[in-house]
Amino acid sequence: MLLVPGHCVMDEASANSVRQFVEQGGTAIMTAYSAKVDEHNQVFRTTMPGRLSDVFGIRANAFERPVYHHTDSNEDGLQKQKLNLRREHPGIKFANHVVDIPIDYYEMVETSTAKVIAQFTNLQQELPAITVNSFGKGKAVYLAVPAHASLMQDLLRQIYVELEIRKGPETPSGVAARQVGKFTIYVNTTLPGST
After folding, report:
1. Where is the chain membrane-spanning (predicted)?
2. Could you give the residue ranges of the DSSP H alpha helices within the chain?
C-alpha cells in the first residue's frame, strides 16, 4: 500500500512510480492537494490530479473552502485569518455511516472510470468524497479532502479487510511494532519521563 497525502508537487518520476505501483497490483491512496504542480512549480495544464488522472479515474475540477477567511494587508504581504464562519458543514457518508470531521477544504471531483465509495453530505449537490479506480492489476483511491486521522483510520480499516492485511501488535502511543516471522520488533519513540 502506498499513501500519498497532500503531495502537491508531482514530478514525472514520482508519477511514473505511482502509475507502475498500481499497474503491478498495488493500492495507492492519494488525498486532496496532491499532484497540483509539476517539478517547476507550474500548475498542470491538464486534468488534475496532474499526470495521474487516468490512474485515479477522476478529474478534480475545482475546490471549495467552507470556512470564510478575512484577508488583511500587512508588512509581509497578504495574511489570511479564519473568521470561523462556515458556509457549509460537509460530512463524509460511507454506505453505512457518516464520518463527521472538520472539513476546511474539499475538491469537486468528477469520475470517469472510478467508483464512488463515499459522498459528501450537507452540500447543495451530492459530490464524490472518496473514489476507487481499478487500474492495471491494482487500485487507486482518491480522497477529495486533506488527510485527517479519523477518516484515514476508517478508510484503512476497510482497505485492510479487502487487501487481507492483518493488524499488527497493539502498542501504547509512541511505540511502533512490527511482526517479522516469529519475532516482534518494537521501536520506542517516546522521551524518557514522557507518557
Report:
1. none
2. 12-23, 53-56, 149-163
